[in-house]
């Protein structure tokens, strides 16, 4: 195929509100380095990292929920996920499904034509296990909010599936985040997992993947979204913030809390964990500042684990689940890439149940 020299792309020009995005129709198509591949983007999913990075929410100077981040001023020293500044202009978008159309000098040309999804964690090729030497695609390297993108060959994972590009673009971030959390908490079939925010992309993935492990799943979501969350496999679905969560869970033994919500309800969630229970967390969309009674932590023998950089086995496992049909995409809506601002507004407002995907 003929590869053009220019492309459409949504460019992030700095930290701030949605006006920091700039639509360009003349952006240079990137050239793959020796160990990279050039991918023609078929679809690209949206995730919280896009919103948080754009707003500078990761800065410790920001204390509010993700939908209010731009009301505070991020510290220039730590506005991105890794605690260090990123460079602008930047093309965001980590969850790409597309086709390899060119390869660098060190990549097998036989890969041209492969359909791929992305492993978003950029690792040191000589030190793959070192979490201190990681970057994130769409943050430290330009991502998929464009017609073409480059990424390391090892991060472009071949996938064989009848699912559409938009459906496959729901997996890379939401499902890898969820699987990383469940792996960190060592969830098994003997567990009962409580999932707040179950109507979101990661929350819905947590429901499916915990069920895939054989666990019992109790989900929290707004009543209007209960049917859709139940369809993902949740054993029970309760209101997002029940008036009396302990009473609602009286006959349940919650061994794992898998949370990406945080915020003012967090301490209530922690209080229902069984003695010896585990919290695994990978987000705080309702706010990062929470109340914790340390006596709850130590007297109840609880274990808290944070989960960001996923283990190496997570994405290959997800590819197997996808190809076997063990998990299904939670695609809520698609938007043209040129309408990314509208898509992100809908994402922040939680207008849809599941993942939002943009199409170039």
Features:
360 residues; alpha/beta; Quinone Oxidoreductase, Chain A, domain 1; Rossmann fold; 2 domains; six-stranded parallel sheet; 10 helices; globular
Please outline the helices and strands.
Layout: E1 6-12, E2 21-28, E3 36-45, H1 48-55, E4 95-103, E5 115-118, E6 121-123, E7 134-136, E8 148-152, E9 156-158, H2 165-168, H3 174-184, E10 192-195, H4 201-212, E11 216-220, H5 226-231, E12 236-238, H6 245-248, E13 254-259, H7 266-271, E14 273-281, H8 294-299, E15 303-306, H9 314-324, E16 331-336, H10 340-348, E17 355-359
Parallel strand pairs: 10-11, 10-13, 11-12, 13-14, 14-15, 16-17
Antiparallel strand pairs: 1-2, 3-4, 3-8, 3-17, 4-5, 5-9, 6-7
Helix pairs in contact: 3-4
Number of discrete helical segments: 10
Regions with pLDDT < 50 over 5+ consecutive residues? Answer: none
Order of helices and strands, N to C? Answer: EEEHEEEEEEHHEHEHEHEHEHEHEHE
User: Could you give me the name of the CATH homologous superfamily of the largest domain?
Assistant: Medium-chain alcohol dehydrogenases, catalytic domain
